[in-house]
Structures are given as C-alpha cells and as structure tokens.
Amino acid sequence: MNFSEKAFLKPIYFLLLLSLWNCFIPQLSEAQDKKSSNVLDFLVEDFYQDGKQLFTSPFHLSKNDRLKALGFVGVSITLFLVDEDLQKFFQDNRNHSSDKLADFVRPYGDKLPNFLLGGIYLKGLVFKDQKAKDTAYLGFKSILFTQAVVLSLKYITGRERPSGNKGAYFFKMLDFSPGTNSLSFPSGHASTAFAFSSVIAHQYPEWWVKVLVYSAATSVAWSRLNDNVHFTSDVLVGSAIGWYVGTTLTKFHQKKKSTSSLGFQIREDLTQIQVQFVF
Prior knowledge:
Distance between the termini: 48 Å
Strand content: under 5%
Strand order of the largest sheet: 1-2
Structural class: mainly alpha
Radius of gyration: 21 Å
Number of helices: 11
C-alpha cells in the first residue's frame, strides 16, 4: 500500500474505531440525556452539529478575531513565498541528533494520540470521571474532522513534497492517484498533534498542561521540516487547522454543558426527584 492509499484510508480507520468505541461505550453523558435515542442517532446528530459549528464559525468572527485571521493569512502567504529558503535553512542545520529527536517526537502526530485518548477514557472509566471520558470522545472527533479537512486539501492542491525536488511551487491539483512525494499541503502530522493538544489544553487548562501539550505539538511540526517532508507553510496551515478544530469543538461542547446549569430529573417511577447542577 503506497502513501496516498494510506492517507486516503486514514479517516476511514478513525471512523471505524470511533464507531466501535461508541458501540461498547454508550454511556456518554450526552447520550444518557437522550433516553429515546440509540447511540447511532446520537452520533449522527452530534457529528452534524459539530460539523455545522466548524464550518459556520468563521462567518461569525468578532472584529478582533477577523484581524487575527487576516494576520494569519498574511503570515502564511509570507512563509509560502520563502518556503524554499526555509527548507534550505532546516536542511543545512539537520544532523544526526536532530534526526534522533524527530524520530522521538514524530509519533505524537501519528498514532500516539489515539493510544493516549484510550488511556484517558480508561482513566475516566476506572475512576468514574465523566470529564475524562468526554475528553477522549472530543479528541477522537477532533482528529477525525481534522483529517477529513486536511486530506481534502491535500488532494485538491496536490503539492509536491520537498523530497520530490521539484521546488516549492509544483502543484498537481485534483490528482487522485498521486505519487509518493505528493500530498504535501497541509501537514497531517502537525494537524493531528495540534488537534489533540488543543482538546487537552481546553479541557485541562492548567498552565503546565498547556506548556506540555503545545510543546509536544510544536516539536512534531518541527520534525516534519527536519525530515524534509513538508514546507514551512504546510506545517503552519496544518497546525492551524488542527488547533481550530480542536478548540472549536471543545468550546462548543463546554458551552452546551454550561447552558444547562440547573436541571431536574424525574425518574419514571416517580419515586425520586433529583436536582442536578452542571458547571
């Protein structure tokens, strides 16, 4: 199986894993609140609402956020124009030690987040920590949405990787049978790392957690430049996509939970009335 086939199948693997996850774990807090719906109904509605939030949020930015977005576009264009110079800089400074470090941090942008999310859910299951279970679910969703966006852009743009030695501005758009050195823009590893990190950072906002996860994600982004498999603009845009998806979905989830700050639950047998505060 070549690189393009693996890249194309990656989100499918995520979707199958997520489906199995929810078949065996139907007790997510949101699903519990929908007693008349099964897990599949919940997933369809949940993914629809998340997708709607992701793709409509950019149209409702505040003035300050619009300025930040314009600034990001400006930085991205600038890096795109100097991609070849930056590639030369990273390769001139590449050595045995940098390769070893890149090998060490690279899994954080590949399969490692999936295992970490599984561990987070297991922790929630053992210690009855609903926040941990929700975090794992949000992490899987964020990675899935991120990979869907990233792979779409990869096939639309068809940018050649630096290792292809065709320069930074060789694009073969809408090529659905790309070669080994294609699909450079944007970086999938960087996007996965930042999608995972942003979920963790917003669910557990302690300063040391943010430093830890974002440092790890930045290291992954650097490793793709060191390994000569991405240009700097690929890594920047990929990182931004992952951060945006993870941040938007997590804040949307937190907002949904906070809107029901006071609720009443009446059991069907009418023998118990429970007042529940959710913060």
